[in-house]
Known about the structure:
Elements: H1 3-6, E1 9-13, H2 33-42, E2 48-51, H3 56-63, E3 69-72, E4 77-80, E5 83-86, H4 88-107, E6 115-118, E7 123-126, H5 135-152, E8 158-163, E9 166-171, H6 177-191, E10 198-203, H7 209-218, E11 220-224, E12 236-238, H8 241-256
Parallel strand pairs: 1-2, 1-10, 2-3, 10-11, 11-12
Antiparallel strand pairs: 3-4, 4-5, 6-7, 7-9, 8-9
Helix pairs in contact: 2-8, 4-5, 6-7
Bound molecules: magnesium ion.
Amino acid sequence: MSGSALNRIVLFSDFDGTLVPIRKDPKKVVLSVRVRNVLKRLVRNIPVAIISGRSLAFLKKAIAIPEIILAGNHGLEVKMGLDRYRHPKAVACEKTIKLFTDCLKREFRKTAGILIEEKGLTATFHYRLVSESQRELACNAFYDRFKNFSENSDGDLLKVRAGKMSLEILPNINWGKKEAILWILERYKKRFPQRKVIPIYSGDDETDRASLSLMKKIGISIFVGREIAPKIAATFFLSSQTQYIALLRQLQLEIEGQ
Ligand SMILES: [Mg+2]
C-alpha cells in the first residue's frame, strides 16, 4: 500500500480472539502492554475502533486509550469521542435480558463450569469450562430454558446466537457489529467529507461474519485464527492472533516511517 493510502485506513478490530487471546475465564482477559502500545501509536495517525461483544464499560477499562472508538455489546452501544450511542430498542429490552439472565443463574447454579456474563444490553452464556461430555447437555438445557422463557413472556424480544463456546443473548433487532461499523464510518465521513477512506475489519468468530463480509466489499477484511464452517468471506486469512498483532505492528511502523 502506498504512503497516502496508509493514511486513509480506518482500522476496525474485534477484541477477544483477535487483539487478545481467548482465556478460559473471560474476566481474566487483559490487553498486553505490547498490543496497547501498538494501538496507542496507531491511533495517533489513523482512526482505530474496537467492535466487541463485551460491554462498553469493560472495553473502556480493558483498553484504556480514550482516543480509540469503542463499540460494545455487539455494536449496540458506541463511544466515539464525545458522541455516545445506545440503540433505543436494545435499551427497551434491557429488563427482559436481566429477567432471562436471572432465570439462567437459578437454573445453572449447580452446573459446574457455566459462566453467565451480564453486560447490560446483552448477556453471554459461557460453557468453555464445562467438561466436554457435558457441553451438549448444557446447551440443550439452555435452549429449553430459552424456549420456555420466550413462550411465557415477551420472548420475541430476545434472540440467541452461537459464538466460540458461548451463546450470546441479544435483543431481537437487526443491529449488530456491522451496523455499528457503518454508523461509525458515516459519522467519520461527515466529519471529514473530503477524505477517502479504506476501512479494514478483523475478527475471529461467527459473530464477525457479517462485518467481514461487508468489509470485503467496501474495504479489506481479515479473518484471524482457525477457519470456521461455513467458510467466512474475507479478503485475507491469518492463522493466528500473533500474526495479526505482527501485522498491526508492521502497519504502525509503515505509517510512522512515511
Ligand atoms: Mg472475537
